[in-house]
Amino acid sequence: MVMKVDEQITLWNHSNARLIDVRLATLANGDALRAYRLPAHAFFYAAEGGGIARLDDEPHPFGRHHVLHGGRGAVLDLYPDERLSYYMVLYKAEPLTHYARQLGSRALADDPFRCHYGMLPSYPQAFADKLATMREDWLSADQLDQLHARLLFGQFVHELLRQLREQGAQPSRPDVIAQVVRYMDEHYAEPMSLARIAELFGCSESYLTKQFRRRTGLSPMRYLTHIRMGHAARMLALPGASLQDIAERVGYPDAHSLSRSFKKRFGQSPVHFLAGRDDLVPELPDRRPEYALVPDSPRCYIIVDNHSHDRASGGATMLKKKRTSSMSAAALLLGITMLLGACGNGNTNPGTGSSPATSSSAATAPASATVSSPAASSPASTESAASGTRTYVDSQGTVTIPVHPERIVDLTGSAIGNLLELGIKPVAAMDSSMKSPYHKEQLSGVVNLGEGSDYEKILSLQPDLIVVFDYLEAAQYEKLIEIAPVVRLAYGADRPAELLKKFGDFTGREDQAQTWIDEWNRKIERVKPKIVETVGDRTVSILQPYAKGIYAWGDKGGRGGEIVYGDLGLKAPPIIRQKLIDGPEFGANLSLEQLPDYAGDYIFTSNWGWDDGDPEVVYGSALWKGLPAVKEGRTFFIDTAGSYYNDPISLDAQLAFIVESFLGKEGLTLLS
Q1: What pLDDT digit, counting tens, does each position of 312-328 carry?
Q2: How far apart are CA 448 and CA 430, in angstroms?
Q3: Which of 134, 167, 200 is the last residue of a domain?
Q4: Three-state DSSP class for 239?
Q5: Which domain holds residue 542?
Q6: How far is it, in rounded angstroms, from Cα 657 to Cα 660?
Q7: Is residue 478 located within the same domain as residue 594?
Q8: Looking at the structure, do residues 249 and 282 belong to the same domain, yes or no?
Q9: Chain CA centroid to CA 410, Å
Q10: How far is CA 262 from CA 192, 232, 305, in A?
């Protein structure tokens, strides 16, 4: 869209403009400035040299004295064909209120100062002299000189528009949606919100969403998800990257969040995609889908753990290798299972204290002996009862399990404290199950299974029950049921007390579970009135900085949220209430600029604890230090490792910390 020069002149006459910076830079022949996103509206002036400038991928050949204008958010590339010396003048501007009303909401949404235009001045010396003096005065410590620089900026704009009108050149509006698409494509791994994108490109959220959907058929955030999932799908075909690693590389805080989005996008989980048959593999989304608005770029590659992957050639080969490896592992596992079955008949299972008959049934052919159909007949159930087993309905169906399991492998990653509270020490657990400081003294002798994918190791432990969350991938589940019965628990669906009841049910320790629940309720009854009186109507937030931003938490997923918002019923900031308590999400990934909206009058916080992120990026920022909760000493630093868990043992420790934070040490007497 073209905007007439006279319209630009009128706009400048009815606007406030503020000089931001005057820069002078040099590029040697062979050097380049690549993908520099303009932080404000900008004028570029070539004082010496020439070459090619690209504004949002639109080429502009230029020589000495050439002037270009680009709007905030535009991407500038400079490719000099000789030594280049250039000025960059950055400014901010907005129409005065009365003129803004005349322009109307549509014109303001387009931001007329974002127009792109260029020219070779008829009288270049007028620009060169003004820019040299402007920069000198701008760098002066004398405020009078700085005022002169601002006046010179007005003269610079006047001279530019005058010559632009004489030459008959016309500014053109930038393609904002194309700019947003490119920004997402380049920054998909960073925290990103609709509000942040709209602010960056100078338009309202509603306008951006409407125009984006009109051009692409998708909302901005859905489009961003497609970009992230495309990269994740390619990374899955590469060796050496875990789901957690891939999640962090494509903008997700953890593997579970990635898996959930991946399944929504492709209709299958990441592991199923990786290990599935050819007819189950989804068509990988192109880096620039058919509705993308940015021209193709030769820079189309992904790097994971120092291994390059060309999407056109390497992906298929690597995927075949991965599948071959998975099939070989499955064949080996089946062979070992059959060997143990052949050798184990009639032998006692050492270390379990069970009878030879029970040991034999656990060690031989577990696939047929342990898993039953939801439509199992009564005779089958009776036979199971006679052999020391029973049916149990988990989150996915009916499974046959031991009446009193004794060798449990815990693969939940965070719920191990439920077993420990019931007096059960599992024979093995994942590494992430063993990081809570509240469990440390009770885990001696428990085998660390790392990520839980060493099936030969699990098989060698001869478990009689395996416990997992139901986000377990289908391929993993199929391998585990070859070893022992598997109980699948619905991830995130149960409150802590409800989850403990389920652990009590399938382990035969319902009474111990109910004892803890009753005592927990008595503790809450003792401390809640005093805490509610102390906090009053003020809000409480749970915030965790991590490598790429900040995470806010609601009443699910640990970090004390179940206690603060659930048991104690304390008030959350409106956006946390809307998105994380009343809404379906566990946590919100936000940028530093959004921090004031999520910050309550009280803040519980810690570093994420699972990455190498520097929390001082947040804690050292002026925005954090300026929060009322920080300035007034109502910020409490929770245990980083312990905050991840919401099992009974961890909840007891978290409750003690929360009570002490609000009421002081004397409040702890209420818990005893």
Answers
A1: 333 333 333 333 333 34
A2: 6
A3: 167
A4: coil
A5: 514-670
A6: 5
A7: no
A8: yes
A9: 26
A10: 18, 8, 21
